[in-house]
Amino acid sequence: MTEAPEATRRTPGTPCWASLMVHSLGTTEEFYADLFGWEYEPGPEQLGPYVRALLDGREVGGIGELPPDRHLPVAWTTYLATDDADATAESIRSCGGTVAVGPLDAGPAGRVAICSDPLGAIFGIWQGAAHLGTWPAGVPGVPVWNELVTQDTSTVGKFYEHVFGHEARAHAAASDDFDYLTLFLQGRPVAAVHGVGRALPHDRGPHWMTYFEVEDTDAAVARVDRLGGRIVAPPREGLSGRVATVADPEGAVFTLVRSRR
After folding, report:
1. 141 burial class (0-12, 13-18, 19+ CB within 10 angstroms)?
2. pLDDT tens across 48-96, in order?
3. What is the Cα–Cα distance from 9 to 154, expressed in whole angstroms?
4. What is the residue-wise DSSP string for 175-222?
5. Are strands 167-170 and 179-185 parallel, antiparallel or unpaired?
6. Is 110 left (phi over 0), alpha (psi -120 to 50) or beta?
7. Helix or strand run (H / E) with residue 54
8. H or E stretch covering 35
9. Could you give the CA distance from residue 72 to residue 17 in angstroms, rounded to a whole number?
10. Exposed, middle or buried: residue 177 (CB in 10 Å: 0-12, 13-18, 19+)?
11. Phi and psi of 53, rounded to 5°?
12. Which residue among 86, 103, 178, 236 is least packed, with the fewest CB closer than 10 Å?
């Protein structure tokens, strides 16, 4: 496990890790290595065929391989930090969510569970031990934002407030036509909930979207296309900067963003 002196434990409720389960681990490693410059280290062994992606020796995400007989949708999963995975799992159940896997130990790295909120969006919870999550490096190739895309913000916003202690605030531009909450912890924005109503993709349902920092959104989109990925939504100006939604060769959807600085 990569160690660094600046490692810090994440505030519970903060997005702390992004992980992807695919059918072809090697091919997917090559795609993201070419796109973001990632390198890889194996483990934890308890997760089966699994690698941790690194930039400059710092962990930025994980990729695992599904068993051959598991024909599941391929998607990035956002993990939220917790100091007690078992207590958080119980809170998720009591607030109308579901705990599908775990909590279970990932060796000395920590304790993990896969869950879903009351409207069906899948997310993970991570109780870090030796591994505390993605490094907030602020460089291209690192997850920089997480946004829940769902039917509406009212019910599900309260769920995350109750379970994780988020303070949900309507965005300044929110209106009858723009349903958007920002989730705060200790006065700091950590994630968002975007209610899109009937515009929710029928083939995906409610889902968490992972945003990856890039130097040039348009150039990164062109690179995705050359590497065999797919353009879901072309580059455009968004709330956080110039964004584009793309998919890797196995269909995992994610967003590229060049933040305004």
Report:
1. buried
2. 789 999 998 889 999 999 988 777 789 999 999 999 999 999 999 999 9
3. 30
4. BTTBEEEEEEETTEEEEEEEE-GGGS-TTT-SEEEEEEE-S-HHHHHH
5. antiparallel
6. left
7. strand 50-55
8. helix 25-36
9. 20
10. exposed
11. -85, 140
12. 236
Q: pTM here? A: 0.91
Least confident of 90-104, 128-142, 207-221: 128-142
> At residue 85, what are phi and psi to the nearest 5 degrees?
-60, -35
170 pairs with which residues across the strands?
Answer: 181
- Cβ–Cβ under 8 Å, residues 81 and 18: no
Token digits of residue 40 = 């890889």
The model's pLDDT over 152-205, given as tens digits with 9 standing for 90+, comes to 898 899 999 999 999 999 887 767 778 999 999 999 999 999 999 888 888 889
Compute CA 78 distance to the chain's CA centroid, rounded to the nearest angstrom.
3
Maximum Cα interatomic distance, the chain, rounded to a whole number of Å = 48
Token pair, residue 132, equals 């505390």
Q: Which of 253, 236, 61 is nearest to 143 (CA)?
A: 61
How many Cα atoms are found within 13 Å in the side-chain-facing hemisphere of 198? 0
Closest CA to 229 of 212, 213, 252: 252
Q: What is the pLDDT of residues 202-230, one digit of tens each?
A: 888 999 999 999 999 999 999 999 999 99
